[in-house]
């Protein structure tokens, strides 16, 4: 095994930073100007976490390509961290949006598209009844509320190092002594999440059972594969145990498919025959237009209806006047019907396999202690040899310096990776040549790092 020396990494990083700054004068200028009115010179604070001394400012994005204000074009493997998994500005979605724009944007009344989208979500995921939101975050918040309401229980169970959007109950972590507390960076928690939340490690069946046995957990909220601390796969049999234990202890199971839609047209649920009580989703299904949805089984729906106070249903904590607006629904319909189709997924998943193979070959050729992992059309490499089995292991495996270097190296050579970790996503517009471009740059980066 060749060693990755820290001094070489620092030298290479300095070179890449200099190159980035030199090649992006317009982005730098916009960032400076933005500092007058935008906090940290960006519209959302976390955008400063892109590599380089400032983020690139976007001129346009189309298909699997993004062009910045300096005229540099990128193969976009970030795809808005899944929001653009359908490709940027897909033609059928654009057409549907343009048609809907002329017919009205928001009405607080149902449109025919809502019927089509509800039927399609039911067909893909198997959940009987659906409702809409403006984001996956809201879908999760509302699903949690409903679970608490109909079970009469207070607690939510999540996995250490999970991410489900800005949902208060989920910003909880498991300390080394097994106690629950606010996760690192939890901004202004209203209460200590220990009051609202139980946290267990992914793949730990015994801990899950201990946490559920108290009988006060309304719901488990889980991604079927963890995707927000690198990709952490479920062990064989873990989902069966999760389903069996939640049923045994009267806890509802919410599966969050926002990212794992990458596993196939019906997400991981469809691909692996999961049977959740509720399912949440957002991001990609609107082709880039803000949207979200949550589905529930017939049994859950019956309990929800029993608990609904109709005269105050609009102000009971589940709502949003813009939710289910005709624009989002027109976008969802076109995206699901014509863009994220079965045929598109078959191609996207084949590209994911190609990406995985290219990375694996370089890792083997240079014998670096890393690995690559994939779920459908999403792949990721981590800078440790062994696959982590849970969030704590995956969190500990993060190497911030190497991660920043790899992101910047890619960016300087026209490849955009998802910030925060080395994740790549394939869209219907992504090509084999795009994947091969990444493979070539990855190989170049590794060769430089090991000095070979
Ligand atoms: C698994 C999962 N669920 C929900 C969300 C929230 O999505 P949004 O920020 O679009 O509300 C995210 C965001 O990254 C996510 O990764």
Give an account of the 3D structure.
- This protein has 452 residues and is an alpha/beta fold.
- It folds into 2 domains: 6-85 and 341-450, Alpha-Beta Complex (Aspartate Aminotransferase, domain 1), CATH 3.90.1150.10; 91-339, 3-Layer(aba) Sandwich (Aspartate Aminotransferase, domain 2).
- The chain has helices at 6-23, 25-34, 91-101, 112-125, 136-151, 205-213, 238-248, 267-272, 298-307, 326-339, 342-366, 391-397, 400-412, 432-450; strands at 58-62, 65-68, 73-76, 129-133, 155-159, 172-174, 180-182, 197-200, 217-222, 252-256, 278-282, 292-296, 371-375, 378-382, 415-416, 423-425.
- The radius of gyration is 22 Å and the shape is globular.
- Pyridoxal-5'-phosphate is lined by residues 81, 135-137, 140, 163-165, 223, 228, 256, 258-259, 282-283.
Would you spell out the secondary-structure blueprint of this structure?
Layout: H1 6-23, H2 25-34, E1 58-62, E2 65-68, E3 73-76, H3 91-101, H4 112-125, E4 129-133, H5 136-151, E5 155-159, E6 172-174, E7 180-182, E8 197-200, H6 205-213, E9 217-222, H7 238-248, E10 252-256, H8 267-272, E11 278-282, E12 292-296, H9 298-307, H10 326-339, H11 342-366, E13 371-375, E14 378-382, H12 391-397, H13 400-412, E15 415-416, E16 423-425, H14 432-450
Parallel strand pairs: 3-15, 5-8, 5-9, 9-10, 10-11
Antiparallel strand pairs: 1-2, 2-3, 4-12, 6-7, 11-12, 13-14, 14-16
Helix pairs in contact: 1-13, 3-10, 4-10, 6-7, 11-14
The structure holds pyridoxal-5'-phosphate (PLP).
